[in-house]
Write a structure and sequence with these properties.
The protein is of the alpha/beta class and 253 residues long. It contains eight helices and eight strands. The chain has one domain (5-249): Vaccinia Virus protein VP39 (Rossmann fold). Helix content is 32%, strand content 25%. GO terms for molecular function: S-adenosylmethionine-dependent methyltransferase activity.
């Protein structure tokens, strides 16, 4: 029996959207993963660091995949539900969670860390990253790239030509170098997403709030109905995420 539009809207609208665990989407949406295996590389770097900082850690899910942490391990997060979740997940592992508004300055001393990391940060303050890195230290991160999931975003908002340039790796490389960092690795990927019902859409737009700012089911009910009918008729809605892996080093000199 096919779920009704209303039951799907209710399911997506009532799901817990705290943290960055997307397992609720199992069976409802799929996304290809980059070939480079960010979590595994992160764990390896953490095992060799002496002091680490993870910026915008979310609920700590990705960081928690690491088996070992350096003697000093800190993570920042701005959204209170995620602060609570990350504290519960990471404090028993010896990682201190600092509530931070994601605005400069970072609440740490100069040259405090030899490893700074982040997965899908919404803001990137390169000068602050460079400031808290020790000479020879590394920023290692997976960023969301340009025009990521714009097929879905533009379905609701219409064409966004100016926004399509945002987060371009060339621009981020220039900004990192402008802050005094050296790019030592940069890889890009464009990955297929399949969305099988509008419950997944509602869940995603409630969770990733910057995709469609001000999203509510009531405000976008007509577009959600259109999308539901389209999926029923044509099959999964196809979009593409954009990612890049970046490693930047603070020079020794």
């Amino acid at each position: 029996m096919t779920d009704t539009l209303e039951s799907l809207l209710e399911a997506g609208g009532s799901a817990d959207v705290s943290g960055w665990d997307f397992s609720w989407l199992d069976g409802r949406a799929t996304e290809e993963r980059p070939s480079w295996g960010y979590a595994q590389q992160l764990a390896d770097r953490l095992s060799r660091a002496s002091a680490s900082l993870d910026i915008q850690t979310g609920g700590g899910e990705v960081l928690a995949e690491a088996k070992t942490f350096p003697p000093t391990a800190v993570a920042t997060e701005s959204w209170p539900p995620n602060v609570i979740k990350a504290t519960r997940v990471l404090h028993p592992r010896g990682v201190v969670i600092v509530a931070d508004p994601d605005q400069p300055p970072l609440p740490f001393a100069d040259e405090a860390f030899d490893l700074v990391t982040s997965r899908h940060p919404t803001t990137i303050w390169w000068e602050e990253i460079a400031r808290v890195l020790q000479p020879g230290g590394t920023y290692f991160a997976q960023h969301v790239g340009p025009a990521s999931v714009f097929e879905l975003i533009e379905f609701f908002l219409g064409p966004q030509p100016e926004a399509r340039r945002g987060r371009h790796p060339d621009d981020e490389t220039a900004a990192a170098e402008g802050a005094g960092l050296e790019i030592v690795d940069l890889r890009t990927a464009r990955l297929r997403i399949e969305i099988h019902d509008v419950a997944a859409v509602v869940y995603l737009l409630r969770k990733v709030i910057w995709w469609v700012p001000g999203f509510t089911v009531e405000k976008y009910r007509d577009r959600l109905r259109d999308l539901h009918n389209r999926i029923q008729q044509d099959g999964p809605f196809i979009a593409h995420s954009s990612r890049h892996l970046i490693a930047a080093r603070r020079p020794l000199g």
